[in-house]
């Protein structure tokens, strides 16, 4: 390693870590965010305020409340079921047929009506499927043996934290590295030190390496911290090889740092760099597969998602941590991320040369 | 006295407008990006799952098992990959090639005809939260279709549950996603627009100039926020038009209330950006904080996709400090529901309070001394 590069690296490290608040942001905030989101968010639908409108439905209601998913809402008899939902007093209201339930069921035309507030379709779906599962038992019916014996692998209880925490880890890491690097070159341009840098006897490759290496290192320092929290606080299993995981993370951090640097070469001011990183981050997070399924997207969006390093990293992390890391899958996803990184670095080099002229 | 304060705030606003106009890139982004993102992702986000890759090993290869496979095929939810052994099925799940596996044991048809309890094993990839629950739900549909086709359904008829979905009867994804998405996008953009403004002036040294004038902190803050509020409102109008015209989302509430809520909401996030800027005085740090406090919390904690009601109680309260949570409630209410304005009192009150607190704190933290 040559002396110029070492000097350059030193300068970048000092610049990034000089501010105490920045150190907190770099090493404290990712952990805090991961813990916060890990505890708070889940895909489960809980605490559904259910009101039981008519007497015959009381039994169904009791079972529903006993299941733990529902919260009872004491309804005013005078109020219409529709009004309960409209005024936000209940999220769902069970309404029975006029006849007593069991009798109409004997006739085979029993219909239990439930009014559901579907302004949130995720909750509406959840409510419907919970009630479908609860009702047969409540009206003293044999639930019937199911044809399928479903066994859930990797996360048998479908614990939310187990799949969300690796996802949140990916997001937090992505945000922090992109934001850091995208401003690095833009700041030098804005302050005017970029010209000094160009006129100094350093090659473009050295500038690029000097800008990227410190942030890769800073990003990597977060990994053991976050991984420790994930496995200790959230009981996320670590079934794969830790070294493979570190390698995957290293490639991912290299990819995001090179994307950040690329944004930085395009931006003239830090404001533009920030907007640029937002333009990357928002779609990257939306198309990562953490928040909603990617399988059902229109083809043109799916094509965009194939350029999303975050999507590959989420898959990798889940595969390594939960499934133990299938070699061919791991290598495939790593290779694509590496390819994206290489393409970005090449474009960065080209852009730098153009600025020099 | 009051008048001259207003005049000074206006001058600052004017200067900020020049600043915005000088950077057409940012201007175009502020106006165009929100509606672009909402439209693109409004089409994209769909909570249904199609073409789930399912690996099937059929050990029976009888007429009955073929009928079952046919029901999987005709449900349109699954894309079948045939495998010979159980090991192959499991390895498909290990390597992400399939999300679900189905194993039909030999003797399936015999058991069925003899009336013995039959079990086919379904193995489900539990590592992906966005699909696991949905897929298990689809299995019920396949089972029902199969049993009625096979004519073996001797069970008493289940009481039918008839769910009436109010406000979004077809459970259309875009009706749910578009109003929510607009909240998230506007929140982040508002923070990003102002988060650098004051820090930039500190870094460039122009803040010292500004401080040597008789202008007061509150006037600087108002002057900085006002032009961006107008940008934000225009962006929301674009989004509103897209929601109505492109996605056919109904709007059942009062436009006046919606406008008022939007104004409060944008001001709150712009003020949050100013606060970050005032406290940090450094662009890079300001941007980190802006992204940290803007992007992920408004995506994950605002109730956009992950329901707030399902969070632990502590977080249900903690999320109350996010203006996005309240505006999300108001926005969904006004778009999809019609009546019950009493419900909006709390979100409006909270939004008003948050805006006030954010502006006041930025004013207090706006120290006029040169040393940070």
Sequence-ordered SSE layout with sheet pairings:
The complex is a heterodimer of chains A (357) and B (372).
Chain A: H1 3-17, H2 20-27, H3 29-40, E1 48-52, H4 58-66, E2 70-72, H5 81-86, E3 92-95, H6 101-106, E4 111-117, H7 121-138, E5 148-153, H8 160-191, H9 193-199, H10 204-233, H11 242-266, H12 270-286, H13 299-305, H14 309-323, H15 327-356
Parallel strand pairs in A: 1-2, 1-3
Antiparallel strand pairs in A: 3-4
Chain B: H1 2-22, H2 24-44, E1 52-58, H3 63-74, E2 78-83, H4 86-94, E3 100-104, H5 108-114, E4 120-125, H6 129-150, E5 160-166, H7 173-195, H8 197-204, H9 206-211, H10 217-245, H11 255-280, H12 283-300, H13 313-318, H14 323-336, H15 345-365
Parallel strand pairs in B: 1-2, 1-3
Antiparallel strand pairs in B: 3-4
Helix pairs in contact in B: 1-10, 2-7, 2-10, 3-6, 7-10, 7-11, 7-12, 7-14, 8-11, 10-11, 11-12, 11-14, 11-15, 14-15
Provide keyphrases for this structure.
heterodimer; A: 357 residues; alpha/beta; four-stranded mixed β-sheet; 15 helices; 5 strands; 66% helix; elongated; B: 372 residues; abc type-2 transporter like fold; 2 domains; 65% helix
Task: Write out the strand line-up for the largest beta sheet of chain B, numbering strands in chain order.
Answer: 2-1-3-4
Overall geometry of chain B comes to: elongated
Span of the ends, CA to CA of chain A? 27 Å
SSE-based structural type of chain B: alpha/beta
Strand order of the largest sheet of chain A: 2-1-3-4
Query: What string, H for helix and E for strand, traces the elements of chain B in order?
Result: HHEHEHEHEHEHHHHHHHHH
Structural class of chain A: alpha/beta
The oligomeric status of these chains comes to: heterodimer
Helix proportion of residues of chain B, in percent?
Answer: 55-70%
Helix content of chain A: 55-70%
